[in-house]
Design goal:
By secondary structure, this protein is α+β, with helices and mostly antiparallel strands. It is about 45% helix and about 10% strand. It has one domain. It is built from 4 helices and 3 strands; from the N terminus they run αβββααα. The protein has a 3-stranded antiparallel sheet with strand order 1-2-3. A hairpin with a 2-residue loop joins strand 1 and strand 2.
Length: about 150
């Protein structure tokens, strides 16, 4: 059950990132400043000016994000971008080796490009989801993983 929820989250997350990298508008949003909306167990971060959006649906993630993640602006944008690049690179490496890594955890590759500026909110959400994923599923994608 938990694995299916994780897979659903990843599919939504990866699909949005993949579509975003092509600079397509995924969905309209009600605010122009980029906002965090929590509806039930859905976390939505949108950056309208750059047309990127991430939606994560997971029973545990929204609670974890609200209670355990460091607040926004704790990390610099550069820090988040660097960490996300490292995490996504290892994620994609594991995706390409289903015989070695659980293919139920790494079902899709992530198209995260360092030459695209996704904005703070998108990077913040991806970073925190990667930390949540690593701690929840006992995975270590790269380097030290905070246990928050």
């Amino acid at each position: 059950m938990v694995m299916k929820k994780c897979i659903s989250i990843l599919i939504v997350l990866l699909t949005i990132i993949a579509c975003s990298s092509a600079s397509q508008k995924i969905a309209s949003t009600d605010t122009a400043s980029g906002s965090n909306k929590k509806i039930s167990d859905t976390v939505r971060i949108a950056n309208d000016s750059l047309e990127y959006e991430v939606i994560i649906i997971d029973n545990g993630f929204s609670t974890w994000l609200a209670s355990r993640a460091y607040p926004r602006n704790y990390y610099s944008l550069q820090y988040l971008e660097n960490k996300n690049y490292l995490y996504v690179t290892e994620w994609n490496n594991r995706f390409s080796q289903p015989q070695r890594y659980n293919p139920n955890l790494y079902e899709m590759s992530i198209d995260y490009r360092p030459d695209i500026h996704y904005g703070y909110e998108v990077n913040y959400l991806i970073y925190n989801y990667m930390i949540y994923f690593q701690n929840t599923y006992k995975q270590k994608l790269w380097g030290y993983v905070p246990s928050r």
